[in-house]
Amino acid sequence: MSDTQQPTSWLVVGAGGQLGQDLLDVLAGTSGVRAEGLTRAELDITDPAAVRAAVAGHQVVVNAAAWTNVDAAETAEEAAAAVNGAGARNLAAACAGTGARLLQVSTDYVFAGDGDSPYQESAPTGPVSAYGRSKLLGERAVAELLPEHGYIVRTAWLYGEHGRNFVATMLKLSAQRDTLDVVDDQRGQPTWSHDLARQLRDLGQAAVEGGAPAGIYHGTASGETTWFELARTVFELSGLDPERVRPTTSAAFVQAAKRPAYSVLGHDRWVEAGLKPLPHWRDSLAEALRRPGFAALTGSPGPG
Fold first, then answer.
1. Domains contained in the chain, number
2. Position 78 in a domain
3. 61 found inside a domain
């Protein structure tokens, strides 16, 4: 960046979550960027006036704020839709008023999850849960209000050092139980939040520079696995005995919301933006487990 060039101003909404925290860390280490983060307590995205005030002066806005309690949404769909649908609409409207680019983080739950080959970005949606329906409302609002400046990035099976997630849970339970039963009939792409944060940074920069077309992108790791296979790999890479993890079926865990059996997403759109898809899930997991936040859960120094 030249001495006279102004830094690109970013706003990260939902800055207290695992993705929001990782994104702020990534942006802090990126030259030519000035980033502001607002947590749920600092910005209510269901308040249009507050959203307009927050968005003003920023060129890139990332909506990492969401109602993420999938099971609770089944009995509180209106509340979930207020955040995931109307909240996203408020942000899109504010960005439309200023010309800012909006990166809307969405989910694999917008699909029915009954496929057997990767869902492409153009695949028909068909959510089977209240959470999925609420997130689809947000996608549609962004597409409607920001046809040229709206970027919908669907992710899935997200884990990171900050907050609750499957990988952290497996590490914690490894110190509490001799064996763990984990479902082996759901397939997806374990995605490290730090990888996704870097991809969002690169996408936002490409969007400002005019090199990334608006629309839908799939922000998930390459490759695919099951929850059972993921848990065994977490154990293996952490120096624990993977045989302690035993396979079971989804029927063994009764949950309010139906989980997608198949959550593998295709990544073709990244080529149009001049960006590579995210790395293979196993490579990213090995790198993630070296981080102090994960290693501390087992008292291990992490993979060598």
1. 1
2. yes
3. yes
Helix (H) / strand (E) element for 216: namely strand 215-218
pLDDT tens digits for the chain (304 residues)? 445 578 999 999 999 999 999 999 999 999 999 999 999 999 999 999 999 999 999 999 999 999 999 999 999 999 999 999 999 999 999 999 999 999 999 999 999 999 999 999 999 999 999 999 999 999 999 999 999 999 999 999 999 999 899 999 999 999 999 999 999 999 999 999 999 999 999 999 999 999 999 999 999 999 999 999 999 999 999 999 999 999 999 999 889 999 999 999 999 999 999 999 999 999 999 999 999 888 777 655 444 4
Residue 131 annotated in active site: yes
CATH classification at residue 76:
3.40.50.720
The pair of structure tokens assigned to 5 is: 């060039």
Per residue, the 3-state secondary structure of 53-88, as one string, reads HHHCCCCEEEECCCCCCCCHHHHCHHHHHHHHHHHH
Amino acid at 228: F
Per the domain annotation, does 51 fall within a domain? yes
Catalytic hit among 131, 151, 159, 262: 131
**237, part of any domain:** no
